[in-house]
Specification:
This protein is an alpha+beta fold. It has a single domain (3-99), classed as TATA-Binding Protein. The chain has helices at 14-21, 24-31, 84-99; strands spanning 3-9, 36-44, 47-54, 57-65, 69-75. The longest helix is centred in the last third of the chain and has 16 residues, at 84-99.
Length: 100
């Protein structure tokens, strides 16, 4: 499966950044409620394993929070490849908003 990846730097440190991002999936669900059919996520330490379904496509991945960077990486269905740039951009925007 094709991959996507985006990252955002921050100056919060790992712990405070994780705390700010704890609501990442719920925020995505609210923000894109008209487009998402499913949004799930489970935190394991500083890593969020998530799954989002929109327009019939399921996107799975991880949000990895480190001392100075929050990185999202995951898998896209082949039919979603044309939207990869938009997906990466929207995720980065949400991360920046949460971490600023």
């Amino acid at each position: 499966m094709p991959e996507f990846r985006t990252e955002v730097t921050h100056q919060l440190g790992e712990g405070p950044a994780v705390e700010r991002l704890k609501g990442f999936v719920e925020d995505a669900r609210r923000r894109f409620q008209d487009h998402l059919q499913k949004a799930e996520g489970v935190w394991r330490g500083n890593v969020l394993e998530f799954s989002l379904k929109a327009a019939g496509f399921t996107v799975t991945g991880q949000l990895i929070v480190e001392e100075a960077v929050a990185r999202v990486q995951g898998q896209l269905p082949f039919l979603a490849v044309p939207m990869r740039g938009m997906i990466e951009q929207r995720i980065a925007e949400q991360l920046r908003s949460e971490l600023s």
